[in-house]
Amino acid sequence: MEELSEMKKNKYIQIFNYLKEFSKLRSNPVRDIDAQETQYPEKFWLNDIPENELFENIIRSDFNEDSDYWLKIRKPKEPVKPEFVKLTENLEKWIDTPTLLTDDDEPRLKETLEANGVKVSIEDYPEIQKELQLYIDNKWIDDLIEYNERIESYRIEQEKYEKLNAVYKQLFRIFNKAQQFGEEYELVVGVGLLNFKENDESPKIFRHILTQRVDINFEYSQKDSQILISPNLESAPQIETDSILDLFDQFDSQNIIDAEKAAENFIKEKNIETIFGHIEDALKMFAERVSPDGSYTHLIEKPSRTPSKPNITFSPALLLRKRNTRSFTALYEKILENIENGEDDLEIPTINDLIGIHPNTESDTIPSDGSVRSQIEPLFFPKEYNDEQLEIVEKAKKNNKVLVQGPPGTGKSHTIANLICHLLANGKKVLITAYTKRALEVLKEKLPPEFQDLAVNLLSGDSSSIQDLQSSVNAINDELSRANLTQYQLQIEDFEKELKKTRETIAETSNSLVKIKDKATRKQEINQKYNGTLTEIAEALESDAESFEWYKDDFSNIQNDKLLSQLTEFIQLHENYKQIETDEFDFEIPDPNKLLTSVQLKEYSSLTDKFANGSFPKDENLKISCSDFEKLIQQLNDLQNFYNEVDKFQIDFTYNVIESFLKGRNQEWLQILNQSKAVLEKFENHDLRKIDKDIEVSYPQDKSLKQLKNDAQILLAYLIEGNPIKGFTFSIKKPFLPREIKERLYFVEAVRVNGSPCDTINEYETVLKDISFQQDFIELSEIWGKEVPAGKFLFKKFSFFKEMHFEVQRLSELIDEANALKSVIESSSSLKITLFDKEQLNAALLEVEYSKLCKSISDHKDLVNQSTAYLNNYVPKGYHFIKKDILDAYNNLDYHFYGEILTRLEKLTHGKEKFINFKSLRSELSFKLPDTIKSIEENSFSIEDVQHLKQAIYFRNAQHQLKKLMDVDYENQLIQNLNELEKKERKLTAKLASKKAWYKVVEDLQQNRSLRQHLDAWVMAVKKIGKTGKGKRAMKFRKIAQQEMEHCKDSVPCWIMPLYKVAETIHPEQEMYDYVIIDEASQLGPDAIFLLYISKNIIIVGDDKQTSPEYVGVDANTMTPHIKRHLNGIPFSDYYGTEFSFFDHAKFFCDGVTVLREHFRCMPEIIEFSNRYFYAPDGKGLYPLKQYSENRLEPLVTEYCSNGYTEGRGARIINEPEAIQIAELIGKLVEDENYNRKTIGVITLQGNQQASLIENLLLKRIGEKEFHKRKIVCGNSSSFQGDERDIIFLSLVTAHNHNRSALVKPEDERRFNVAVSRAKEQIWLFHSVQLDDLNNTNDLRYKLLDHFKNYNSYQPIFNTPIERRIGTQPEPFDSWFEVDVFNDLIRKQLSVIPQYEVAKGRYRIDMVALLPDGTKIAIECDGDKWHGPEQHQNDIMRQKVLERCGWQFFRVRGYEYYTNREKALEPLWNMIPVFEEKESEPLEDFDYQESNIRAEIKVKTGDSLEVLSSALDIDTDGDETSLEPAEQVASSSKTDKILRYFNLCKSGTYVLTVDEPLEADYVVPIHEIHQKGFLLQCYQSGHINKVHIPILLSRKIGKEYMNGLNRDGQLANIQAIDSEGIVGIYFNENGRRKFKAHLTENISTREQLHLQGYKVIYNEFERIEYKILPLEILSEINRLVFQSFTANGKPLDNNYYDSEWSILKRYSKKSEEQYKRREEFIPHSLFDNRIGLNSTVKIKFLNNNKELKVKLVDYHTSGIEIIDGVQIVNILKPLGASIKGKTIGDRVKVGDTNSEVEIIEIR
Asked: Which of 282, 597, 982, 1135 is deepest in the core (most CB within 10 A)?
């Protein structure tokens, strides 16, 4: 055991020795800060800050010393560049501006101008030339001189601004890095710059000796912004000598120590708080002592030269530097000291697994605090929780280490917040830590308010963290001052009771809902008579109503099986009692239980007779007192039995033994018994009867048994040695025998065994045994003093003594028992017993019998008296007259008569009882069936009618159940109650948990007097600081407060701080925390192992699919020798290196892993990338639950940077064009209202330099205020671990010129996973390569780009009513009930998605209604389908999960809906807010349109409105209006009849005609089926204007209107459609032909033709073509139909969409005929006979007259492809390129060949 303990302790030391070495390796000293860009990335010399009123600098003489900051840098305002003086309007238009600004020559005018599409020449305007010359002659030179003077002033101001702004920008960059990488970097101000280089071989020292940590803050308002540098509240001047400590050739170690101590003592004695507080004397002292050649120079600026002797200058600088690991090293040293000084049997349970010692007994699993894990208090989760969170708690009950995998956005912070509350409620001290503070920043906010003062966010040492600590300590102190633990306990008990009651009510309410759901939706049996659906039951009830009209009672309990029998019984009893007299039942009937029984009275009579006639002594003095005579008599009889048994004994000394025992001399007999027993036991193993039968031994009479025994033993030994005593040999040897043998040879003949001489070994052994028997009998004889019985039989002798022994033994036992019995008798009665005196015993028996008789008579007399007294008591109605007979029987002791009386009394009692039961039965039945009882008593309901009552009760029961089930208000109330109860449960849980947590805190404080004193001291010190907190007095008390706070920290039960802060802050002690929770554990390495030492239990939360720890400057190979040296014998020692995270390591010592899978952060399309490639393959697929508006931002957007290229290599690789494009786009988006208040992040997927480049460009583009306001961070994946943004921009970096290798490593997967999963709403991917350029499909770049380009999760939207028909409902609906609800929604102008999938199909909603603002309402149709209470519970849980994610739910019940549809859906309509309609709704008739048009002709003129009188007016708004009444279009059945021709010219003029079209540029026939449809104007700019056709039909026929199209756009297609459809868009992007489609319903409808319309394509594109497709093919091409117009299209050569391409090809054949019909009416339209894309052309080869049909396409064709006799030809191939743009009759040469073709036909 000792060896095991020693082994454990040594292994603990091994681990922490290794960690100490690991820490030291990561903390190499920096000697020259200028040469260490990695360690000191930012250096800002305070003297380099220009002196300006915008800047406040502590080293300047005008600085206000009372300020609580050292630097304040305000943002300078950029000067405005002056403009040249304003010229006249004409000159401003025509002047050539550059010539105006130089005196090299006179100003000139432009030669031409373009106005309204017309080019005009200056030659036509000679007056303007004259005007210019006049200006030159009179004023130009003066204006130019003035302008140049202002320009020069501007240049000076601009240079000044640039210098000031450079300072501001550098500080902002430092602020950004400090905020972004606080866990890696610290910000300090250094003074006392040690600067020297002794010689060429020695290192240069350029490092500050004194530093102090500072905080940097960025403040901004609407007008300006500023950056402040302030001393950290916890900081003090620190002396740093690590840069010279190991320079033994240049410095004496003792000198360094002395110099450091001297400076420290000086600072302490002078009470210097900051490095700017008269510190130069300390620096001078240090310089003189650190080296004999040391010196100090008062220099503010950075030294310009490097001396050869140590020289210190003041030279203050702001330094952003890497955090060193000295705090970790000190931590490990302290832990090692604790372990080495600890007990030999030191036990660290949380580390045992690491050293290969695993728990294997139940005792090993018991926590060190002695509590039993399985008995941890109930769950205290005040926030919503899921099964995984419960699993974590259950695991924590059984294990001291729990591992949790939390993929991105799965609610880790929410989970940890619940765990904190649960643990604090159980009185635990908790630490929550992570590598970065980003993962911890929001944690405290997620705690309920009741817990927030119990937790401290010590995320850094800045003022906010200190204030948070002070706030918590202050709250704890306040609570302590007013706390009453007794009151706390009462409150806790009240909360527990209320919570228990609430949970019981929740269970009851839930069960009630399940029952309602079960009964309302399933074919069910309400009772035996009524079953089916609710509708069927209602019909049956209506049918039966007349049959049961007679039943007036409300009773409906069919479970009461006794009712009918009770009613039958009542009718019978009622008939019976009508015929008999019941008055005697009014009297009180004596209770037989309070009277004597007939047996008792008979006994009483018998006893009195026996006493009178018995031969008992009548002396009262002979009475024996006893509590139990029966028992006493039994005891005396037992004593008599003892006497009788003794009389039967055979021994003749019985009374001698008795006398000895009674006189106390029993020891002599006990001794005899013991001696006898010892001898008798020797015979136990011998069969004496057999010996008597088989063996006879005879002995000589002259020898004693003793001599014979001795001689036999000697002869036996002689024989055993092999010597004979008979035979020839013996006879020869006989003379020579030893004397002792010779003397004993007589034995052979004298002793006979069975008559034979005794000459064998067996015979001698037999003789010796027999002699032993004889001696034992002699001994028994001597013991008992009795002669041994005569004779040779051993058994007889043995039996004689054994019997004697038994009788004496039994006699002793009887004497003891008699004595015991005597004691009992004498203690329980007045008798005195003389043992074994038979006469005295007989007399005692007679006395007892007499006494017993007297007692029995007395007892019976008492019974008679009690009964008589009972009968003589007063009762209100008096006793029944049978009372007199009872008393007479008592007096006469006439038990015969009394028996008859009791029989009469029994009948009387039974009769009254039955009568009372009858009355009770009537009362009970009258309560249930008042009308029926009344009918019975009125003789209108007989016993024959009972059989009908059962059916009537079933009828009434069904009525009640149906009414209850259809009581929607009841169900809604239950649902509302349940929601309120669940909220109440969470609130109560929070209150109870917080109260228990506070109880523990206060209890511990009340038991810790020292801690309470420190709390009081801290409060007093804080009060003394004062309101301003300035001045020496304030500094003094602030320091005291800080010192007291170090002690007060122990009062805080929950700490939240990053790992480096833990190492800096705590004094490590074993199990100082009950629980440590690690977040983002995948970012931590072996340096987190110390957390196992300081905690009793640990919960490790991380994700091995996210970024792993980065140890910059530590090569993995350098750790190998340290691992081998320190971790020999430690299991899995290789995992202590830099390649593995603490999360990886934890898998070996944790019992399994709990995976959080519900994803709440990202849009489903975004997280699907991570899900598909990183989690689903491991069986850990995520469930995206985020609710979102359909008007959301497009989740996945790509931006192709066609001019992108890379520079640099490795981490310094950049793609400047990509960076510029990102910065430019972000600059635009921050001005877009759709991106208002959206936070932004930029992640580069390769290298770090790209991020710096983008950051600089962004700061220049949008400024620091916007940068900070948007929380913009530019970095790599590690910069964002544990963080999130609304919008993320990804830079792929790689480009065509980049010699790249595929990114396929696990670390690449982690980077890409983190990068993509940071975006909540939208992610932009900027790429300079296309999918075709990435030939390795396993490359993560390819996977990411492919996901963005090709991922589609479209769910079709329906907005057309569905007609009811016979048969099953159409797909995807589950029932006609859903179809009916769907139609009602459509009638309310809502779009609907049926069978809506959430969380990748894990949850499905019956249908989702899309509101005009894009939000969604989930609608569940609770119809007749029912899958049991378990499924119902799952539905409710699903709804709760989705409601937690922001979903609104509306449930409509089938029976309620079909009872009253409008009422059933009214709550849904109330849920939908009223939206302002930005565009007009579709018009139902033309009357409305006419009135609308009349309203349009009003235009604003000044402050009044006037009606224009002209027939046509072109106003500034571009409205086309006419005063003449519009002709009505007759309403008739819709046919193909043409109602109008819409004739449109490119000038915008349009005319409506009836009979025939005009010669216009565009002619669109409007058929009758179009009269409520739309006109689509599709522009080559990517805009579509959608106009109501009723507006066109309302125009006057033949009237010319203006503004028929947008003049800034060029039409690519114009078409009338009768209803909503699909618009397909073909376009070229970067040389590739693409396609995408949108539903026309998503394009807003306009009322004006001149509008540009809705932008439907955002890509950079060429050659656009529109196709109008029917809705019926939506399901077949839905992967190409996009909800968002920002969506990119899919390349036509993408084989992934082959099925869609074939559908589109088939449809294009059908549409060609439609185009042909339209061409008849478009003589000069877009559809003239010019060959273009998709044209089908008939050509003839002129050299052989061969004819061929070809169709031009833009996708690649493999070989000769012929469809329906038409050869498919790529438009870029020689034949296609040659005929493109040609028309019928043209002849062209094919490419470079000699072939020539003629165009014969174009379709």
From this structure: 282
In 3D space, the residue among 1289, 1300, 1293, 1304 whose CA is nearest the CA of residue 1334 turns out to be 1300
The residue length of the chain stands at: 1803
Give the CA radius of gyration of the chain. Answer: 56
Give the number of other CB atoms < 10 A from CB of residue 119. 8
Q: How far apart are the first and last CA of the chain?
A: 98
- The amino acid sitting at 917 is N
The three-state secondary structure class of 33 is coil
Reading the block at residue 1062, the tokens are: 């833990």
**CB neighbours of 1308 closer than 8 A, spacing ≥ 6?**
1340
What is the C-alpha to C-alpha distance for residues 867 and 598, in angstroms, rounded to an integer? 13
The residues, any chain, with a CB within 8 Å of residue 152's CB and separated by 6 or more, are none
- What distances in angstroms separate CA 1112 from CA 184, 1136, 1149, 1274, one per listed residue? 10, 16, 27, 20
CA dihedral of residues 1389, 1390, 1393, 1396 (deg, nearest 10): -160
* 1269: phi then psi, degrees, rounded to nearest 5: -60, -35
Which pLDDT value is given to residue 804?
87
Kind and range of the H or E element at 954?
helix 946-965
pLDDT tens-digit readout, 1115-1125: 667 778 888 88
pLDDT at position 1404 is 81
Contact call for residues 1496 and 1480 (beta carbons, < 8 A): no
Residues 6 or more apart whose CB falls under 8 angstroms from that of 265 comprise: none
In the three-class reduction of DSSP (H, G, I as helix; E, B as strand; rest coil), residue 1767 is classed as strand
Q: What is the three-state SS of 1570-1639? A: HCCCEEEEEECCCEEEEEEHHHHHCCCECCEECCCCCCCCCEEEEEEECCCCEEEEEEEECCEEEEEEEE
The letter for the amino acid at 146 is: E
Listed in sequence order, the DSSP H helices in 1076-1151 are: 1090-1094, 1119-1126, 1142-1149
Q: Which residue has the tokens 């007291």?
A: 1044
Closest CA to 169 of 107, 93, 78, 247: 78
Say which amino acid occupies 880: H
Closest-CA residue to 69 (of 177, 206, 198, 171): 171
- Report how far apart, in Å, the C-alpha atoms of 1311 and of each of 1059, 1108, 1275, 1318, 1338 are: 22, 9, 12, 11, 15
pLDDT the model gives residue 365:
46
Q: Which residues contact 414 (CB under 8 A, 6 or more apart)?
A: 383, 384, 446
How far apart CA 283 and CA 240 sit, in angstroms, is: 12
DSSP states along 1360-1412: S-----SSSPPTT-S-HHHHHHHHHHHHTT-EEEEEEEETTTTEEEEEEEEPT
d(CA 330, CA 23): 9
Summarize the chain as % helix, strand, coil (round to 5): 50, 15, 35
Which residue blocks in 1007-1141 are alpha helix, DSSP H?
Answer: 1009-1025, 1032-1048, 1059-1065, 1090-1094, 1119-1126
- Per the DSSP assignment, residues forming a β-bridge with 1639 are 1622
CA 550 → CA 165, 271, 942, 1132, 1506, distances in Å? 98, 104, 14, 87, 78
Q: What local confidence, expressed as pLDDT, does residue 239 receive?
A: 93
pLDDT (0 to 100) of residue 316: 96
CB atoms within 10 A of CB 1594: 24
Which residues of the chain fall below pLDDT 50?
A: 361-366, 368, 370-376, 1028, 1427, 1476-1534, 1713-1727
What number of other Cβ atoms are within 10 A of residue 521's Cβ?
Answer: 21
State the pLDDT at residue 1: 59
Beta partners for residue 340, in sequence order: none
pLDDT digit string (tens) for 656-674? Answer: 888 888 888 888 888 888 9
